[in-house]
Design brief:
Layout lengths: L14 E6 L6 E8 L3 E5 L1 H10 L9 E5 L3 E6 L1
Antiparallel strand pairs: 1-2, 1-5, 2-3, 3-4
């Protein structure tokens, strides 16, 4: 995770619900940072989902990245 172009937002460090285009059910995670391409998240059902579906990703990392184009909506829990 690089510090360039990462912004603060009211949802950073908050538990949020994500609705992805590819899933019928919602997933939850804590947003840790975001940039123009997407969100760095930690924990919750979204991080578990990303670890299980991301080929070549770092399954041991507590942080996962989700591209903005995959997100239908985000809601504060």
């Amino acid at each position: 995770m690089t510090n360039e172009r990462i912004k603060l937002d009211p949802l950073v460090n908050r538990l949020v619900r994500f609705k992805l285009h590819e899933l019928a059910e919602t997933k939850e995670a804590v947003i840790r940072a975001f940039d123009e391409q997407g969100y760095w998240i930690e924990g919750g059902s979204l991080a578990e989902y990303l670890r299980s579906t991301s080929p070549g990703g770092n399954a041991a990392s507590e942080f996962q990245f989700i591209e903005s184009k995959r997100i239908h909506w985000i809601q504060k829990v």
